[in-house]
Amino acid sequence: MTLSEKASYVKGLVEGFDLDKDKKENKALLAIVDLLDDMAGSVLDLENQMDDAADQVEDMADDLEKVLKNMCKCHDGGNYDSDEDGSDDLFYEVKCPACNTTVCLPESKVMENDINCPNCGQEIEIEIEDSDDDNRHHSDSDGSEKTLGSDD
Question: How far is CA 141 from CA 61, 66, 86, 120, in A?
């Protein structure tokens, strides 16, 4: 039995007593029953709003997951390897020399230079060049991309 159903049951019981509504104690009892009925309705409204909010949060989580998966979409449909701390790094495309899988990595991970291919487990060594015409690749928020090469 729901809260609203219970409140309606109590209200029906009290109305069935055929109370004298002019007596103080009966006025108090009837006011309490009305309050109980109003509170049950408010709780039901809150439960419905919470269900709607939970559905919206779930939809947003699904949308966010899609955005994160597409945020660093590599040209060869490579894997996305997110940063554990969730920082807003630049992302680089790195091609595994062993299996040719293209992997998108956050800059912080690339700088560690301790990267294993998520596909085959092979260590990927990266040479970082400072020139502008190196083959670096990253996806900025504006969608511009550069390429980063790996040792073969």
Answer: 20, 16, 15, 30
